[in-house]
Specification:
five-stranded parallel beta sheet, alpha/beta, TIM Barrel, globular, four-stranded parallel beta sheet, 18 helices
Length: 464
């Protein structure tokens, strides 16, 4: 049992302690503000979470920055209140070696990577404080898994891209390169070694392939206007269009593209765009198309089905709710999983909408324009609404790599995408994390610029 002494208790502190001790380690803990109880307790592990190490040096001191006692997170000044520094971590050669490979491929310099002969590794963290552990580990983990920086910037309507998404390059932890490693999970391991504790929950490395179906078919089911208009709008697809006219074989068909890979992994998820009205960002064919519905039904056999809410600026609650209800009718089951189309989401707004729709799991937590860990974790995390100061029932699942990101944003070739993936899997396996990634049926089609990438994504899904 772990006993934590603190002068003050907050929902934020209780949330992060529960995430670490209960959910990650499976260890019982208690929290007290009574110094006498702390001294007399026979708890196996004692932690005093205080601003200075004053309790007669009994137990383990985790320095307290007081960030978790913030009464109004909207009032935070990101520059002043979320300081980032470099701290010594217990050595992990697998992380150091493969992190260096990733940085080299991405041409990223100035990362704090230790030398081979050092007995420690250097990592960037929030709230560095001179101490044995080096930082306020509880506040650091909380700031990452609750997306404090992002939520505050979203609320203040900072710069967005062409899709209305927050420009994540504005985030300090991205500027500092913290996003390239799962620094919440690594911090939990640092705390585990600091306390010399053995978790009762076995954490295993898992690969989680996921697919988004933005356009079920390349040509099938589209109106004559859309089909023939494509000859002029997309001349590079002319040959494929002619082939389709004679063979009726559609290149994007999910059962012919993503099914074989997803079927090999019991963790697989598939997300269906089910827009009722077609637009430039919501290009799914008409929902009444029986071939489309057949593909949805068949996908239940090889992956867990989720909703891919259409891209909307207004009326999101009603439109997402209608799409969710339609998909539930088609599959004859409740939809509990979602991923936002174009990864278009705002915090806390989007997650509050998902709560109202009774979505239990969201899989949007990742970057569209780079690789890495948007909330610092590879494991499922219960979303904490910092503006309402409460833990919610919405579970957030993060991904670290996406097909479009590697090819179109980072301009990687398929070989480099395989190398980065291999390094990430080595890193995550060393910390018993999860490797979740996104593909699209288009990217598995070997058409429209994706020739040769199918083997790349199959390697992502491989355990070797």
């Amino acid at each position: 049992m772990i006993l934590v002494f603190t002068h003050k208790v907050s929902n934020s502190l209780l949330y992060v302690l529960d995430h670490i001790f209960s959910k990650t380690w499976g260890v019982n803990y208690e929290i007290t503000q009574d110094e006498n109880l702390y001294h007399s307790s026979q708890a196996q592990i004692k932690i005093h979470y205080t601003s200075v190490d004053f309790i007669s040096h009994e137990g383990n001191w985790v320095p307290n920055s007081n960030f978790l006692f913030t009464e109004n997170y909207k009032s935070i000044n990101i520059q002043d209140d979320l300081a980032i520094g470099t701290v010594k971590f217990f050595k992990n050669k697998d992380i150091d070696e493969h992190f260096q490979i990733i940085c080299n491929i991405l041409s990223i310099g100035n990362q704090p990577i230790s030398h081979k002969n050092d007995s420690f590794s250097l990592r960037k963290v929030y709230f560095p404080i001179e101490s044995k552990i080096g930082f306020d580990v509880f506040a650091h983990i909380f700031a990452l898994i609750s997306n404090v920086e992002e939520t505050i910037l979203d609320c203040k309507k900072h710069q967005t891209d062409e899709y209305g998404r927050l420009e994540t390059s504005q985030l300090n932890f991205v500027k500092e390169g913290m996003h390239l490693l799962p620094m919440a999970d690594i911090a939990i391991l640092q705390l585990q070694e600091f306390l010399a504790i053995k978790p009762t929950i076995d954490q295993n490395f898992e690969i989680i392939p996921t697919a988004d179906i933005d356009q079920c078919f390349q040509f099938k089911g589209k109106s004559a206007k859309r089909f023939w208009g494509g000859f002029l709008a997309h001349p590079k697809t002319s040959l494929d269009r002619l082939k389709y006219l004679f063979t009726k074989k559609d290149n994007f068909t999910p059962s012919q593209t993503v099914q074989s890979m997803l079927a090999e992994n019991p963790n697989s998820r598939i997300f269906w765009l089910c827009n009722e009205k077609t637009s430039d960002k919501n290009k799914q064919i008409l929902r009444e198309n029986l071939a489309f519905q057949k593909e949805i039904l068949q996908s239940q056999e090889y992956a867990r089905v989720g909703i891919h809410p259409s891209f909307q600026i207004e009326n999101q609650l009603s439109i997402f709710g209608e799409e969710k209800a339609w998909l539930e009718t088609i599959i004859g089951d409740k939809i509990e999983h979602s991923r936002q189309h174009y990864l278009h989401f705002e915090l806390p707004k989007t997650y509050q909408i998902l709560e109202k729709l009774d979505i239990q799991n969201d899989w949007s937590m990742g970057f569209s324009n780079t690789i890495g860990f948007r909330n610092g974790s590879t494991k499922p995390v219960q979303w904490f609404n910092i503006f309402e100061n409460r833990k919610t029932n919405l579970t957030v699942h993060s991904f670290s790599m996406m097909d479009v990101t590697c090819k179109n944003y980072l301009k990687l070739n398929s070989f480099s995408a395989i190398k980065i993936n291999h390094s990430y899997k080595q890193i995550l396996e060393s910390i018993n994390g999860n490797f979740c990634f996104i593909i699209h049926n288009e990217s598995m089609s070997e058409t429209e610029g994706w020739k040769g990438w199918g083997k790349t994504f199959k390697s992502w899904a491989s355990t070797t």
